[in-house]
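New to this. Comment on this protein:
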Amino acid sequence: MGTSLYVVPEQVLTVTMDYWAKFVGLSATNTTNWIIQFYPSLYFYSVMEQGCLWLKDWSGASNWANLANSQFDDISNSMALEYFNNTDLILDTFTP
C-alpha cells in the first residue's frame, strides 16, 4: 500500500474513491480520533474490562467486555448502513 495515486495517461481529472484508513491510537500528541469523538463509551468499556482483568475480576471483565462488544457491533452496523445506504436491491431470480 502506497501513499500516491497515479493516473495514466497523465491528465487532470476528478477521482472518487473509498478507502479504509489505518486506525491511529491515542498518544501524547494524538489526543483524539473519530472513535473517541463519536463512541467514547467504547473506550470506557474497554478500559474497564482491562482494569477488571488486571484486578482478576473475571466476572466484571466479562460484563465490560460484553458491553464493549455490543458497542462495537453497533458501530459496525451503523458503518455498514452508511456504506450501503444508497445501493439498489438487485434480485438474481425470476420475479413475477
Residues 58-84 form the longest helix (27 residues). The chain has a mean pLDDT of 81.
